[in-house]
Amino acid sequence: MKSYSFEDREKVMTKQNADGVLSSVYHFYVDGFKGMVLGRKLWAIILIKLFVMFAVLKVFFFPDYLQEKFATDEQRADFVLQHLSTSAVPEKKK
Fold this sequence. Notes:
Elements: H1 6-34, H2 38-61, H3 65-69, H4 73-85
């Protein structure tokens, strides 16, 4: 049996770790998704719900207020700055 020095072992382990970690993680997830039965349906439902929430609802329920009210980017920036820098809670008058 051949004896390896510490430096040789370190070189081998470093190369295996660099090449093998990403490969191991990738194969772990690929094998896991291949073995799923119910999980595939659940992931499909999740992806459909995300699409509906971000694509469909945004178009119908969240109009681009700044685009409609202001003509230039400078006007939009001034409006946002003014509203961000003012207090959300009005001060009490004495």
